[in-house]
Amino acid sequence: MSDLCIIGLGLIGGSLLRAADAAGWKVRGMARSAAVVTAVRDAGFDATSSIEDALADGHALVVLAVPLPAVVGVLTVVARHAAYCRLTDVVSVKQPVAAAVARHTPTARYVGGHPMAGTSASGWAAGSATLFTGAPWVVGSDDGADPEVWAQVAGLALECGAHVVPAGAADHDAAVARVSHLPHLLAAVLASVGGDGGSLAMALAAGSFTDGTRVAGSRPELVRAMCEGNRDALLAAVDDALGRLGAARGSLASTGGLIATIQAGHLARRAFDAARDTARETTEHIDLSTPGALARLRELGHQGARVTALQDTSCHVTL
Amino acid sequence: MSDLCIIGLGLIGGSLLRAADAAGWKVRGMARSAAVVTAVRDAGFDATSSIEDALADGHALVVLAVPLPAVVGVLTVVARHAAYCRLTDVVSVKQPVAAAVARHTPTARYVGGHPMAGTSASGWAAGSATLFTGAPWVVGSDDGADPEVWAQVAGLALECGAHVVPAGAADHDAAVARVSHLPHLLAAVLASVGGDGGSLAMALAAGSFTDGTRVAGSRPELVRAMCEGNRDALLAAVDDALGRLGAARGSLASTGGLIATIQAGHLARRAFDAARDTARETTEHIDLSTPGALARLRELGHQGARVTALQDTSCHVTL
Fold first, then answer.
1. What are the chain A neighbours of B235 within 8 Å (beta carbons)?
2. Is B252 on the interface with A (CB under 8 A)?
3. Do B204 and A180 touch (CB under 8 A)?
4. Which member of B116, B178, B212 has the closest CB to residue A196?
5. How confident is the prediction along chain A (319 residues), in pLDDT tens digits per residue?
6. Which of A9, A140, A270, B74 has the smallest count of CB within 10 Å of its CB?
7. Which has the closest alpha carbon to B262: B275, B247, B274?
8. In this structure, how many other beta carbons lie within 10 angstroms of the beta carbon of residue A109?
9. Looking at the complex, does the CB of residue A302 fall below 8 Å from at least one CB of chain B?
10. Residues of A in contact with B172 (CB under 8 A)
């Protein structure tokens, strides 16, 4: 039986508390807010408002489940009370967290993580034990990752119903800029442009607008933390979007046609659907304790592979 | 019992055939494809592949349910076989259809329409009798609209489960550019930018990407027809989006912050949700046969009002 210590009990931390508990982990959560601690306890879980108390069990896997701007503050306490702990996180960017860990808790055995799941709701009450079911969960696989902690983090993800995608921090950040942070930015832009159309436009808005703006309903401070924390990768993604939208504008204004934009988007969306529906057939076993294992995992992750099972430090990867 | 003649039996025309039939209308459909006609007949409906046959009953309300590029072709046949018919349409732009009607069938008693409903699937098989339930259905309310045809088109919309939004053609086109055509363009751009991220990005794509690109799955020729047919209004909406996305880019690059963009989008999305959830309390009765009735309807529609009931040519409007 492993111990898990979750710092932060919002949507993601709170869902992890429920999911890991359901999977048989002995779990303790920490939230600053006394009201949240009471709600968590009322739901039958172990929670505290003291981060020192939460970290008291030096054997627990510690999970940082706070927004990026709060990470350094937590890490300085971890450095004082559990400097050698096993450490992971569920924050939406990986390079800034890895840099903060290297600076503030260099002795922690850190392997980053990021479950790609969420809703536009926030907070403990919005969480669910099934939030991660079927979701990708990135496990940081840069060279130097501790095989034992890697396997524990990946095991946690699998037991929460997710599948594990191995990736380096830089690759992760570039990918999520395109498929998570840019969508949030475009949703905000679309919501504003629609709103500029006034009451008639709002009355006529149907599925395309509702779907396209859904994540604009998320808490602005969380969206900002995630987007601003991935600045360089997001700038590249925004430039790609601006270039494509500008080209569409030019084509519409000059020739009246949008075939290139619409066709490219349609093919990309179809490829996305096809990739998700394709039965994966290649499988590979990788022993994390062998040299080059992390590099091979990153390479497979880059191709869209996932780790679907673990035994000790041996991964079963399917592509 | 009224007769309804639907030219075109794709997703919208086919759904209208089913919904109007269920509401008690005597309905005949026309599709060019023999396979579609067979499928429609097998489902127990009256269908023909001959547009002349379809138009034979001069008393029917004729519905143009073909994509914009096919409208003129249909109108020239209508001009020959049913020049004085009652005529409406379900095409996604209103000014180009009104102009085509004025040019090719000026004697038809035309009142434009646009049900704001759809799915990313297309064709007869994708249709459903409940597609319009709860959807806004714009009924063209420019000066000169025939009150009797207006009431018949609005009645059809209400009987199909939609609510009627009165609007002039130009106002309609400006509004849908923002809440329907721009969302399709942004979905295409987002799908392409995500696809540029390769297999890892696709493996990590979750709700924000899936929702934001959903309508990129729609048939490209239908999306093109709708967007290209609303060129001027769409250019204005694209410029608004480019300006906002460019400002976000500049702010992220210079200060690292996205507060203005994210906050504005969040407030706009919340206002949209609030407008839909608000109980509408003001009601008004408007007799279509009185002078100024259409202008008053347009004015109310501009404020987000809807027609929820009809008796003869008297509308019950709620705001």
1. 249, 252-253
2. yes
3. yes
4. B178
5. 469 999 999 999 999 999 999 999 999 999 999 999 999 999 999 999 999 999 998 889 999 999 999 999 999 999 999 999 999 999 999 999 999 999 999 999 999 999 998 777 889 999 999 999 999 999 999 999 999 999 999 999 999 999 999 999 999 999 999 999 999 999 999 999 999 999 999 999 988 999 999 999 999 998 999 999 999 999 999 999 999 999 999 999 999 999 999 999 999 999 999 987 776 667 888 999 898 999 999 999 999 899 989 987 888 888 7
6. A270
7. B247
8. 18
9. yes
10. 200, 204
Q: At CB < 8 A and 24+ separation, what contacts does B271-280 make?
A: B271/A195, B271/A202, B272/A191, B272/A194, B272/A195, B272/A202, B272/A205, B272/A209, B272/A213, B273/A217, B275/A199, B275/A202, B275/A203, B275/B304, B276/A202, B280/B305, B280/B306, B280/B318, B280/B319
Handedness of CA A76, A77, A80, A84 (dihedral sign): negative
Residues A223 and B150: their CA atoms lie apart, in Å, by 46
- A177 and A234 Cβ atoms separated by less than 8 Å: yes
Minimum-distance CB partner of A228 among B231, B249, B256: B256
User: Which positions in chain B touch A126 (Cβ < 8 Å)?
Assistant: none
Contact (CB<8Å) B174/A197: yes
Residues of chain A contacting residue B303, judged by C-beta atoms under 8 Å apart: 199-200
**CA atoms of A164 and A309, how far apart (whole Å):** 9
